[in-house]
């Protein structure tokens, strides 16, 4: 018996020296019996892949009863079949004490390896695996960490991460991560600066394109609205009338109207045939930060510092709804033709989905930790993206389920824009411009804007960005009082700019 104990201790020391104190064999919680430990040690020295496969099969057997539930250990009386295997091992152990030519590992292998591998539940003689549903995701992760071995080797750790991901998502397969090929990003060419337009005397805070794509307009802190020829970049017209910063612009696709909002609490409707204001919408108690036009109804949506989303009838100037619920200034509103028809984001770090027919909040999303400065709706998919300081997230309509997190843009994100080619652009307060593959949350290109000569270093921020009607040009409004036009690099190929992407190994969707 003393020789057997010495062999066991020697193998333990070898495991600690080779794989460290966090190895899968030494850190199993709850502890395995000595015979199971010896079998796992033998498996480790034979093949690390084999150990990973056995750990995977052990987890799969424990979760085959119900799909999507979480591991938890609980005491259970020892079964007769387990006791028989234990007695069988004990007999072989006693016979091995007097045999000096037979090693401890071979004895364990000949004695119980076959019975152990027939049923993975026999790996633990003192506990059994029960299935419970945790109350929240954090509890689920703690339970999985408690029940799974703490892997020291990289491949065993990968098995553990896959198990955690699939348990949280309710998947049963423990093979390759399901959906990895689906999430593989498409190739997109990098973007480059095409034109710089300098004509405003203040920060450019808003942009809007005409439905014909022949011109676009910009609103600035110099209280003017300027119209630009998109092909040549020449100034066509300047409108004055606001007495504060013009914070939002939208051009109607069905009428020759332009709607503008600003810090002067005013909401104006401009007739573009006569270039003058024809309607005022009175009701906001403070500055108006954002505006959106419903795609099918004659309804205008505005939001601002008074924490209220206001719905206006374009024709009669009457206020239809005053949607209250946000606790801070509203930074962005978007509309779509189906429920929920209005989406708003606020400095209170929440996003609200509004039912326009009922005039009430449909759902409140609290995934962000800081103020949500921008939201944009995908032109083809039934989803939208939101941005706050250092965080970009995508959600699925109609209930707002979280789809993905975008990691890497670690600054205040002021604006988002997306085109039909699944290119998402995030504009940062430090002048950074990041291009993402929307479906895979993959950053494929990053650049920084260059301030105009004579501007301060702090005046490199980008306040707003938007694509043209074709999605092939990007226009940004910046703190150096310029408007920049970006386009794809036509000389780039997949060979010159390959995709640097690796499949996710952890929980990338949460």
Question: Any descriptors?
Answer:
single chain; 510 residues; Methylamine Dehydrogenase, Chain H; repeat; alpha+beta; Prp46/PLRG1-like; WD40_repeat_dom_sf; 21% helix; four-stranded antiparallel β-sheet; WD repeat; 2 domains
List the helices and strands and how they pair.
Blueprint: H1 2-19, H2 34-46, H3 48-62, E1 70-75, H4 80-97, H5 104-118, E2 127-132, H6 137-147, H7 154-169, E3 191-198, E4 204-209, E5 215-220, E6 224-229, E7 235-240, E8 246-251, E9 257-262, E10 267-271, E11 276-280, E12 288-293, E13 299-304, E14 308-313, E15 319-324, E16 330-335, E17 342-346, E18 351-355, E19 360-365, E20 374-377, E21 383-388, E22 391-396, E23 401-406, E24 413-418, E25 423-428, E26 432-437, E27 442-448, E28 462-467, E29 473-478, E30 482-488
Antiparallel strand pairs: 1-2, 3-30, 4-5, 5-6, 6-7, 8-9, 9-10, 10-11, 12-13, 13-14, 14-15, 16-17, 17-18, 18-19, 20-21, 21-22, 22-23, 24-25, 25-26, 26-27, 28-29, 29-30
Helix pairs in contact: 2-3, 2-5, 3-7, 4-5, 6-7
Give structural notes.
With 510 residues, the protein is α+β, with helices and mostly antiparallel strands. It folds into two domains: 2-169, no CATH class; 191-488, YVTN repeat-like/Quinoprotein amine dehydrogenase (Methylamine Dehydrogenase, Chain H), CATH 2.130.10.10. The protein is built from seven helices and 30 strands. A four-stranded antiparallel beta sheet has the order 3-30-29-28, with no helix packed on it. A four-stranded antiparallel beta sheet has the order 4-5-6-7, with no helix packed on it. α2 (34-46) packs across α5, α3 packs parallel to α7 and α4 (80-97) packs antiparallel against α5. The longest helix is centred in the first third of the chain and has 18 residues, at 2-19. It is globular, with a radius of gyration of 31 Å. The two termini are 51 Å apart. WD repeats lie at residues 197-238, 239-280, 281-322, 323-364, 406-437, 467-496. Belongs to the WD repeat PRL1/PRL2 family. Keywords: Repeat, WD repeat. This is Pleiotropic regulator 1. It holds the Pfam family WD40.
């Amino acid at each position: 018996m003393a020789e057997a104990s010495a062999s066991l201790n020697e193998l333990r020391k070898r495991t600690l020296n080779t794989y460290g104190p966090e190895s899968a064999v030494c850190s199993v919680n709850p502890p395995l019996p000595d015979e199971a430990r010896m079998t796992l040690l033998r498996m480790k020295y034979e093949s690390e892949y084999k150990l990973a496969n056995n750990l995977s099969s052990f987890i799969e057997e424990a979760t085959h009863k119900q799909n999507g539930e979480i591991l938890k250990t609980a005491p259970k009386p020892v079964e007769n079949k387990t006791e028989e295997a234990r007695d069988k091992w004990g007999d072989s152990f006693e016979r091995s004490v007097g045999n000096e030519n037979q090693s401890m590992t071979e004895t364990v292998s000949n004695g119980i390896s076959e019975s152990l591998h027939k049923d993975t539940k026999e790996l633990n003689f003192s506990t059994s695996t029960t299935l419970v549903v945790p109350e929240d995701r954090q509890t689920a992760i703690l339970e999985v960490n408690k029940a799974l071995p703490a892997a020291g080797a990289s491949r065993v750790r990968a098995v553990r991460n896959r198990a955690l991901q699939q348990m949280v998502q309710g998947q049963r397969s423990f093979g390759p991560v399901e959906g990895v090929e689906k999430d593989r990003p498409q190739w997109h060419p990098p973007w480059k600066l095409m034109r710089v337009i300098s004509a405003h005397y203040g920060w450019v805070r808003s942009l809007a394109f005409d439905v014909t794509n022949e011109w676009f307009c910009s609103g600035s802190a110099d209280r003017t609205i300027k119209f630009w020829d998109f092909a040549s970049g020449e100034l066509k017209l300047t409108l004055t009338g606001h007495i504060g910063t013009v914070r939002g612009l939208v051009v109607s696709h069905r009428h020759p109207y332009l709607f503008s909002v600003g810090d002067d609490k005013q909401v104006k409707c401009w007739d573009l045939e006569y270039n003058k204001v024809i309607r005022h919408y009175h009701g906001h108690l403070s500055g108006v930060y954002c505006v959106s036009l419903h795609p099918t109804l004659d309804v205008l949506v505005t939001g601002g510092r008074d924490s209220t989303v206001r719905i206006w009838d374009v024709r009669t100037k009457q206020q239809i709804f005053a949607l209250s619920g946000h606790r801070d200034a509203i930074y962005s509103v978007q509309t779509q033709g189906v429920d929920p028809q209005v989406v708003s984001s606020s400095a209170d770090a929440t996003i609200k989905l509004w039912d326009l027919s009922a005039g009430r909040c449909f759902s409140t999303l609290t995934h962000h930790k800081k103020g949500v400065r921008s939201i944009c709706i995908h032109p083809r998919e039934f989803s939208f993206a939101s941005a706050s300081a250092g965080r970009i997230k995508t959600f699925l309509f109609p209930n707002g389920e979280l789809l993905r997190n975008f990691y890497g843009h670690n600054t205040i994100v002021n604006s988002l824009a997306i085109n039909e080619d699944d290119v998402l652009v995030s504009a940062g307060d430090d002048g950074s411009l990041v291009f993402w593959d929307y479906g895979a949350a993959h950053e494929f290109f990053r650049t920084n804007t260059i301030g105009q000569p004579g501007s301060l270093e702090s005046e490199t921020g980008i306040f707003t960005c938007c694509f043209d009607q074709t999605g092939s040009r990007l226009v940004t409004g910046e703190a150096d009082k310029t408007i920049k036009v970006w386009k794809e690099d036509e000389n780039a190929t997949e060979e010159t700019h390959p995709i640097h992407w690796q499949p996710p190994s952890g929980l990338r969707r949460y």
